[in-house]
Amino acid sequence: MQSKDWETLSKVEVLGDLEPVVDKLMEAHESKRVLWFPSELLAPPEGEDPERHRAALRERARGIHDSARVAVGLNLLTEEGLPHFHRLLAKYLDKDGFWSKWNYLWTAEEDRHGAVLHDYARDSDLFDPLVIEQMQFAYIRNGFDPSWDSDPYRVFVYTTLQERATQISHANTGKLCGVHEPTIGTILRNVAAEEARHYTFYRTIFKEVLARDPNRALESALKVMPAIDMPGVKMPHFRDLADVVRRVGIYGPRDYLEIVKEQLSWWRIETLEGLNAMGRAAQEKLMEIPERLERVADAIEARSKAKTFSFDLTYAREFALE
Predict the structure, then answer these.
(1) What is the CATH number for 216?
(2) Structurally, how many domains does the chain consist of?
(3) pTM greater than 0.85
(4) What does the pLDDT look like over 162-217, one tens digit per residue?
(5) Which of 58-62, 136-140, 174-178 has the lowest mean pLDDT?
(6) 306: helix, coil or strand?
(7) How many CB atoms are closer than 10 A to CB 104?
(8) Quick check: 177 and 68 in contact, CB under 8 A?
(9) Residue 121, domain extent
(10) Distance from C-alpha of 92 to C-alpha of 209, rounded to nearest angstrom
(11) How far is the C-alpha of 205 from the C-alpha of 91, rounded, in Å?
């Protein structure tokens, strides 16, 4: 057996040791969660005519600026793709244990996120329907095969960062759109709240990994935290879509900087003791990441100039952003 294969197997054993922790976290997760379904969030009030309800929704949605529509579209496509990446977690987890139960639960919850946003977009006429479907097809077909999926520990560093980023993006998009159309505000608050619970699960798991195998866990974190690609990175026009989202203040490099600082603090990276030379080196480099991310954010903002955007997604209308 090659050393890399042995290392992977030994890390999988650590995850197996966490089965009782997963059981308790799942129990806490489900006890705090109010399970909702897309048809409930989009249903008309009792006694209201469904057609009249949808007509009023479309009229309100006309007030959502195209830049905010882009943010909803990016969030929608990201959520529709996430359940298809179930395999990235499943490949390392016992199919008969609590890990598998968590992965199926996570997949079921993520599937509703994409469904409710897609149904909302249809009812509100927010996008060109054929374009959003073409983009979703291309996104799923392109796949998502990150380098970190070769390391079970990196998976949980990534999911911590990604779930927190997604939570922030949904919450801020909901606030921006909800000023004009309260239904999408309600939807995105519900989605963001569930992403927050996923985030809590994953960051707690990695904290438990750090307690059991700190040196290798720190090395894995160092491979992921300097920069992450969101799952939607291979969707059509992702860079321009993400640039719009940054410019309108929903999510950007400074948000990622705060996420990294938050995790370094919560995992108590700086104060971990009893490390070997490899662990201490990784610890030191991890604590240097925020300063580097600050420079990256400064540079992006300094280079940013007013720009005009146009997406077929939003009926090819042009809009300008600073």
Answers:
(1) 1.10.620.20
(2) 1
(3) yes
(4) 999 999 999 999 999 999 999 999 999 999 999 999 999 999 999 999 999 999 99
(5) 136-140
(6) coil
(7) 12
(8) yes
(9) 3-321
(10) 15
(11) 17
